[in-house]
Amino acid sequence: MLNSALLWKVWLRIDNSTDEVNQPIAVQFDEIDTIDDLKSRFFQRLSSTRWREINDNASIAIGLYAPKLESQGDISNSKSIYDNGDNGNVNTFDSSNTKNCTSSTTGAFGLTKDSARDKNVLQHPKPTQKRGALYEAFAAAPTVAMAINADFSHNEAPSPGPQRPYSTSPKQLPATAKSPLLRFASVSPYPKFYSDNHVMAPTGLTYVSPHNKTKYARPLMRKGLNYKTESVNDSTYKIIFEPDELAINIYKELFGTMGSQSASQSLRIFSNVNLRQDIPPLDILNVADYVPTNDEISQQAIQPIDHRDVCVLHPNNQISSGERVNNDKADLKDKGDDSNPQEFKLITDEEQLRRASQELKDEEKDTESPWQAILLLPKGYKGGIDFQNKPVPCADSSSINEDTIIHPELEVGPESPSQQSGPLDEFGVDMIQSIPECQRRKDDIPPASPILINSQTPQYSGSLYKTPFTVSSPPDPLPNLFTTTSEKVFPKINVLIVEDNVINQAILGSFLRKHKISYKLAKNGQEAVNIWKEGGLHLIFMDLQLPVLSGIEAAKQIRDFEKQNGIGIQKGLNNSHSNFDKGTSKKFSQAPVIIVALTASNSQMDKRKALLSGCNDYLTKPVNLHWLSKKITEWGCMQALIDFDSWKQGESRMTDSVLVKSPQKPIGCSNSNSFKQTTPITPNKHSPVRKNLNLSPTQIEM
Amino acid sequence: MSTIPSEIINWTILNEIISMDDDDSDFSKGLIIQFIDQAQTTFAQMQRQLDGEKNLTELDNLGHFLKGSSAALGLQRIAWVCERIQNLGRKMEHFFPNKVELVNTLSDRSIINGINIDEDDEEIKIQVGDKDDDSIYLISIAKALNQSRLEFKLARIELSKYYNTNL
Questions:
Q1: In the predicted model, is pLDDT for residue A59 greater than 70?
Q2: Where is the composition biased (Polar residues) (chain A) (predicted)?
């Protein structure tokens, strides 16, 4: 019944388009394609355009313009039912009664009707002649672009209001049958117009040419078409097809035989987003796979938020890159949604925190983004964090639902270590604001550090900051601060570079030196394992293809050793908390080292293998120094949290490792020692930090 | 197989290195000089492999090694050729494009004026069927090695221009 020799295609055109894509575009389809499929195809055709970037299947609709007209259905044939009571917007063309409506038609423009000819037409057995009422929209308005002025013989859809819109067409015949809203199984109310050339053109030629004023239509539809109408102005409304409507049905309804539609009869693509508005293209990145090239990094005006600057501890006791990804995604969403990003909340006690987190929870309820973050920072923190204490008298579910981000204060200047004299009881909650990478100076690249903010921008202190960064944020003084103090914000960690190429060693080493991060070098996997065994390492950058022992193998070996020594494994879940308070428990052992693989940028397999072998993350080579500094901060802070005690003791401890002195002892012991040394800080009931530090170092599975 | 970059040097990458010169004035230049030595040594090692042991894994490693440093310095065309050598050594790729084809991809072809692009080429001695299945890979690697010598030469010219010395 359809001309199968022709490719099935339908002309589509973006409504109101202002730039590159405003011409009709033919999209192929087949029998099973729905409107939604058409949209997808259309996007494929326009894959490289800006319009494509700001639209997706959900943001566009396919339909057409139709003028509002009173129904002019032929009284003699159509028993129209006018459903006054229904203002609903979903209409259904119904064809159940079409066979009864065959004898005569009325010309929409006062054209002469010819019943005899009409009959011929109708008796014509070719199913290709079947036309739906919607067809009239095009028959009447071959250039639908001007649909406002075009006549439309289709029965008008109901206006949303109680008043029926009246016709604006001067040519319109006195309306005798009003059937703006058609209910399923109602008699077809559509006027029927038949033209001569309809009869003459049974083989898929263009039935209606722009100069042909003859109108014809058939209400013959075997299936109801679902669509919505939307009033545009007094004389026009949009017909929008439902996404699951079959394209073929619509085509047949509107144009008849396959191939009948001309480019000027394009269906309209209605998009929500107007190109004229300056909407920043917000790429939805798959953060897990997304590795920016250097070019992207240098060129991007707007960086996706990267939260890797901060440590993320999730109360559900897992930290993985996957969760970080979730977090990032949530941020991206926030960036798009949040219209009021600069809203800070001051949190000073538990009650406020609970309320704030509840609010966040409420706000997030509808979205699929459970990772809304509350950033908690010890303010002016100088003492030891007692991770072991579990003060959860009023832990409510809301706070557990969110990522709790804690950042212990880093040393701001060389003098600060001396200030670490004793525990401090006062805590505050601080805010972290991420900085778009592009705002940082290229060579300084200090990742956003909460400490910096804490120490240098007191106006932010004690704030709960909901959206870390939005595009619309006014420029703030932070980037400058970062530039000036960049070298002081990296956590004090020991890094091992495992790289066989001296040039790459030199680059990485020089970078670390520049940022005053102590590092060691290993030129193959075996060396890496040996150096790791000496202890004191927080972070390993591991090249994968190495002589002697590959990076993958080395990572596996290190993880195996960790397992054997119980590093990072929680022992005895049933131990009571009192053990911790006494400081006698060996429940927690030292944090596992973080291994960041250096992989070839194009090798997904390498990345997978690296992660499987026990690496926590990867950087692609050539290593982008921006990302490198982010990783160092991210993982360094993580280490500081996980094994805060050893971190706090700084380099002296790291170089002076217990292990080095007594290499026979398993590494875990050094840690338990350090736990014993920890003086538990006095419980402070008013400290929200304490409450939210309901996280123990080894609850985090690496 | 990806396409070879049309620019000899990825300045975005190299500039990152150069920006570290702030602290250590000749840092980047030192690296480049180090790289030149390294590349020449590596080429020689590859040639030895092709002439002698014909060990594909070893060639893979050598390709990987030089790829690492050339990519880190932004010498992307060399890195690309090294990646071909690496993949040929792993038998993941099965041919190497012709020199003319690759030279034509250069965005600024004026750089090849006045140099003999075949000057450094070593004769490809591997006989087809010489070592069973490996021969096609060895021949391709030999071609790639010749190409990498040419790319190395071009990079050197570019870098000499930048540093205003004969590197």
A1: yes
A2: 669-685, 693-702
CA–CA gap between residue A544 and residue B76 (Å, rounded): 20
- List Cβ<8 Å contacts ≥24 apart for A24-33: A24/A263, A24/A264, A24/A266, A25/A266, A26/A263, A29/A247, A29/A248, A30/A248, A31/A246, A31/A248, A32/A246, A33/A246, A33/A247, A33/A248
A422 DSSP assignment = S
Identify the DSSP state of B8: S
Helix (H, G, I), strand (E, B) or coil at A373: strand
Average pLDDT over residues A599-614: 83
CA–CA gap between residue A565 and residue A533 (Å, rounded): 11
Closest CA to B149 of B107, B103, B86: B103
Q: Which two tokens stand for residue A111?
A: 């054209």
* Structural domains in chain B plus CATH codes: 25-163 (1.20.120.160)
Mutant choice from A445, A486, A501 vs B, greatest count of B C-beta within 10 A: A501
Shortest CA gap B93–chain A (Å): 14
What is the band of A569 on the pLDDT scale with cuts at 50, 70, 90? low
pLDDT at site A141 = 42
User: Position of tokens 């199984």?
Assistant: A185
Whether residues A621 and B61 touch (CB distance < 8 A) is answered with no
Interface contact flag, B12 A545, Cβ < 8 Å: no
Which ipTM did the prediction report?
0.92
Gap between the Cα atoms of A491 and A437, Å rounded: 19
Going across the sheet that includes A518-522, the strands are A518-522, A494-498, A539-543, A594-600, A617-621
Phi, psi of B158 (to 5 degrees): -60, -45
How far apart, in whole angstroms, are the C-alpha atoms of residue A387 and residue A474?
38
CB contact under 8 A, B72 and A547: no
| Residue type, position A176, single letter | T
Torsion, CA A522, CA A526, CA A528, CA A534, rounded to 10: -120
pLDDT score at A358: 67
Closest CA to A42 of A15, A13, A18: A13
Say which amino acid occupies A474: P
Classify residue A516 by burial, with Cβ atoms within 10 Å: 0-12, 13-18, 19+.
Answer: exposed
pLDDT band at B141 (very low <50, low <70, confident <90, very high): very high
- Nearest of A242, A246, A240, A188 to residue A218 by alpha carbon: A188
d(CA A215, CA A153): 8
Amino acid present at A105? T
Interacting residues of B105 by C-beta distance below 8 A, sequence separation 6+: B3, B4, B6
Structural tokens at position A177 = 């049958």
* Alpha carbon distance A516, A524 (integer Å): 24
> What is the C-alpha to C-alpha distance for residues A591 and A573, in angstroms, rounded to an integer?
17
Q: Which of A225-239, A460-474, A550-564 has the weakest average pLDDT?
A: A460-474
CA distance A25 to A446: 48
Which residues of A have a CB under 8 Å from any CB of B? 294-295, 298, 442-443, 499-504, 506-507, 510-511, 514, 543, 545, 547, 600, 602, 621-625
Cβ contact A507–B31 (<8 Å)? yes
Q: Do A562 and A533 meet the contact criterion of CB atoms below 8 Å apart?
A: no
Q: What is the pLDDT of residue A69?
A: 61
What is this structure's pTM? 0.42
The 10s digit of each residue's pLDDT in A116-162 is 344 333 334 444 344 444 444 444 443 333 333 333 334 344 434 34
Q: Which of B10, B12, B17 sits opposite A507 (nearest CB)?
A: B17
Helix (H) or strand (E) holding A337: helix A321-337
Q: Are strands A518-522 and A463-465 parallel, antiparallel or unpaired?
A: unpaired
